[in-house]
């Protein structure tokens, strides 16, 4: 079996290889599978977007090589940050929030500003990651992982990316940008969704 992960992101591929490495399958990025597509994410939830991406990429690979597609599983993910005080924003618009060209330093500053009146539990937020698998024969598998936290009062940390510097984890007393990569992967939304997908795929006859 081949598992093609629909991302162009090298960091994601590294994590995917580490978590799915024990499966009886070759793990490829889209590029390695000879396919690079930009799929329109027009669903209304993380799960819908992940499903759209997985199915579209599977259909394109099938069009290219039907025999090979019969031995291929396509995985796709969609993730983002939900801030309760902002009614769940930025949510599925996390990458586009406040403009694609706006730096995360700026986006993070604005989110903190918008929460200037929020105290204690009102600052609750979570990272969410949905993973969808498209299997031969039209079957699908879906998982969802979450990491709960709070919006910090100031940005802190240099690790991670995106909204990590404002995502405060009370039990660690630091933001997810202050965790090492391994520490974050062990508790992250993406780590959880990937490990849940690994368990589902383990039950498949690969
Ligand atoms: P995508 O799933 O790669 O499209 O990511 C969506 C967006 O969600 C990213 O561009 C970030 O803004 C945000 N995001 C998702 N996961 C994380 C994370 O682990 N840390 C920080 N930001 C994240």
What is the element layout, followed by pairings?
Elements: E1 2-5, H1 10-20, E2 26-29, H2 46-64, H3 66-69, E3 72-83, H4 104-114, E4 124-134, E5 140-151, E6 167-169, E7 174-175, H5 181-187, H6 189-202
Parallel strand pairs: 1-2, 1-3
Antiparallel strand pairs: 3-4, 4-5, 5-6, 6-7
Bound molecules: inosinic acid.
Give a written overview of the molecule.
With 206 residues, the protein is α/β, with parallel strands linked by helices. The protein has one domain (2-202): Alpha-Beta Complex (Maf protein). The protein has 6 helices and 7 strands; from the N terminus they run E-H-E-H-H-E-H-E-E-E-E-H-H. It has a 7-stranded mixed sheet. Helix 5 (181-187) crosses helix 6. The longest helix is centred in the N-terminal third of the chain and has 19 residues, at 46-64. Residues 77-81, 94-95, 127, 160-164, 188 line the site of inosinic acid.
Brief descriptors of the model:
single chain; 206 residues; alpha/beta; seven-stranded mixed sheet; binds inosinic acid
